[in-house]
Design brief:
The complex is a heterodimer of chains A (157) and B (272).
Chain A (H helix, E strand, L loop, with lengths): L3 E5 L2 E5 L7 H8 L18 E4 L2 E4 L12 E3 L1 H4 L3 H12 L9 H14 L5 H7 L11 H13 L5
Parallel strand pairs in A: 1-5
Antiparallel strand pairs in A: 1-2, 3-4, 3-5
Chain B lengths: L3 E3 L3 H10 L3 E3 L5 H4 L6 E3 L9 E3 L3 E5 L4 H5 L6 H8 L4 H4 L4 H6 L6 H8 L3 E6 L2 E6 H4 E3 L2 E2 L6 E8 L5 E7 L10 E10 L2 E10 L9 H4 L7 H18 L9 H18 L3
Parallel strand pairs in B: 1-3, 2-3
Antiparallel strand pairs in B: 4-5, 5-10, 6-7, 6-10, 8-9, 11-12, 12-13
Helix pairs in contact in B: 4-7, 10-11
The chains are: A alpha+beta (157), B alpha+beta (272).
Chain lengths: 157, 272
């Protein structure tokens, strides 16, 4: 039987396992994308976020069969982009990273938000990040970092 | 693919559904949490016939695989439904969750199903042999039990184009984002020539199925707002008598009290 073909961070891959397997597990175990974190396995924490055809999903709630033919991007791919550089700089400047566990998901949620809405209001940023839990920062530093990335990185999104 | 079938058209999906033992997969947000072992999924997320929103002379027709994010961006989707959609979970879940999946999961907590029941919505079902249309409130037979045959798929949700302008929607959950409803309420009100023509009230997440009592609603139909005011105590009492709620994350007593408060708030909002 044919495997499931999709693009992972720009590279074509073929997965030979079950179509019912969790994207989260496959990304980590088969493709070693360990930026994708497992926090809750029920779509509540956003730590496993990935972009599928540019749209933000929780990879714990996606079966492999659903990504057949799609382009999947994790932090391993996104960190090669200029947009990532702008977000990384802002997250650093605003001390938006403490333990770091939520940050790959936060960054991809920020990317998903800014690609639809390059100049979000504070409320829109909070809404865009509302599915990503952070137990360290209290969120304000992250929200400010995203707002700053949008300002400083003007034109990138 | 192993343990999965990807359908490229509705026809293909219905053929697979008829000939194999498959679980329909639309957005995956409920299925992947259940994580049933030994199943095969029929992937419907790329079936074009299920991805469209259309409008006919009476209904807004929402494809079963349309996601909540897509519906929020669609000008044809009624405001009442959008209000419920915007309060479902968070962006990543709304990007995945679908109307067919929300209904097909059979939960009385399904936020879009509540709106469909309150709005007298219908669900279109198809099999390789043909199709049928069922009222959403009749589609729910019991807890996790639906009027859906093994060879059928949900294809569309129908919401009336008119008559949903005046409403009340409330969702009570543990927090703002990502909340599973503890009690949800949708009421739809309409009056013509001073007489009440619709006073639909639906309660979600409080029993095995979404609750709606059309016989109690009938007490106020055809009445003026002033007459309805006079009947309000009897009407509320009829609900209080009828509602038998189950305990969930919160007690049945709490749920009932919240339901009665929300119902009262709905009446008050429209002058009753």
């Amino acid at each position: 039987m044919d495997g499931i073909r999709f693009t992972l961070n720009g590279t074509e891959v073929t997965y030979g396992g079950n179509a019912t397997d969790r994207l989260l597990d496959v990304l980590r175990d088969s493709y070693h994308c360990t930026s994708v974190k497992c926090g809750c396995k029920e779509g509540e924490c956003g730590a496993c976020a990935a972009l599928i055809d540019g749209v933000l999903y929780n990879s714990c709630c996606v079966a492999l069969g659903a990504v057949s033919g799609a382009s999947v991007v994790t932090m391993e791919g996104f960190r090669e982009t200029e947009r990532f550089t702008a977000l990384e700089k802002a997250f650093g400047e605003f001390s938006a990273v403490q333990c770091g566990f939520c940050i790959p998901g936060m960054t991809l949620a920020a990317e998903a938000l800014l690609s639809k809405n390059p100049h979000p209001t504070e409320e829109e940023i909070r809404e865009g990040l509302s599915g990503n839990l952070c137990r360290c920062t209290g969120y304000n530093a992250i929200v400010n970092a995203v707002a700053n990335a949008a300002r400083e990185g003007d034109g990138l999104w | 693919m192993v343990n999965g079938y990807a359908a490229a058209s509705l026809r293909e999906a219905l053929e697979i559904r008829a000939s194999r033992d498959v679980v329909p997969y639309a957005g995956g947000t409920d299925l992947m949490i259940e994580n049933r072992k030994g199943v095969r999924y029929l992937f419907l997320n790329k079936v074009p016939e299920l991805k469209a929103v259309a409008v006919d002379d009476r209904y807004v027709r929402i494809g079963a695989a349309v996601t909540f994010t897509e519906a929020l961006a669609c000008p044809d989707v009624p405001r009442l439904m959008k209000e419920a959609l915007s309060r479902i979970a968070a962006p990543a879940i709304r990007n995945a969750g679908t109307f067919g999946g929300n209904l097909g999961n059979g939960s009385a907590k399904a936020d879009t199903a509540l709106i469909e029941v309150a709005a007298d919505g219908k669900v279109c079902l198809a099999s390789a042999e043909g199709g049928r249309v069922v009222d959403v409130d009749k589609f729910y037979l019991g807890r996790k039990k639906l009027d859906l045959a093994d060879n059928e798929l949900i294809t569309e949700i129908l919401l009336p184009k008119k008559g949903l302008e005046q409403y009340s929607y409330e969702k009570v959950g543990g927090r703002e984002a990502l909340a599973i409803s503890r009690v949800s309420f949708a009421g739809v009100f309409a009056a013509e020539n001073g007489k009440i023509t619709n006073i639909a009230a639906a309660f979600g997440a409080v029993a095995d199925t979404i609750l709606r009592y059309k016989d109690i609603e009938a007490m106020l139909l055809g009445k003026t707002v002033q007459e309805a005011k006079g009947l309000k105590a009897d009407y509320l009492n009829a609900y209080a008598q009828r509602m038998t709620l189950t305990r969930g994350r919160v007690s049945a007593e709490y749920r009932k009290r919240v339901c009665m408060n929300l119902l009262n708030g709905f009446l008050t909002k429209f002058g009753i």
